[in-house]
């Protein structure tokens, strides 16, 4: 088995339980695993592996940071995907983000149907899209934390990253 898959599995497992327990993913978890991803890639594949890992970490961080600026994810999620990028590379991390966001949408949809909030949420989304279209005001699309549906993002990240690893695979640096 590829060492990166083992490292990623351990990281995702610990992050899952941490997020379920506290709804936070602490730096004391993300930073060491990001560093381990960079070091392991560098040891296995030299400079190419080092750059592969840094690229995955940087691109993943930037994309998730943009989502953080819109209050769509928390700061821990930004660092989580930076570490995933450092361990698994850019492609696996980007697909992991995409699948995680899709799984989060499905989870939210199920929750809204269960709580009978679907019509209210669709109305909110429609109003935001109209404001953006008419007034070109992207700030109106910020998530209102008081009315947002909250659940541990790791509920979506676990199947999202697993799908990414299965469908895309973890590339070697």
TrEMBL record:
Domain Prepilin type IV endopeptidase peptidase intervals: 7-109
UniProt feature coiled coil, ranges: none
InterPro entries, per database record: Prepilin_IV_endopep_pep, Prepilin_peptidase/N-MTase
Keyword Transmembrane: yes
Signal peptide start and end residues: none
Regions crossing the membrane: 33-54, 61-88, 94-114, 151-172
Pfam families, per the entry: Peptidase_A24
Keywords in alphabetical order: Membrane, Transmembrane, Transmembrane helix
Family to which this protein belongs: Belongs to the peptidase A24 family.
Protein name stated in the entry: Prepilin peptidase
Organism in which the protein naturally occurs: Marinicrinis lubricantis
Taxonomic placement: Bacteria, Bacillati, Bacillota, Bacilli, Bacillales
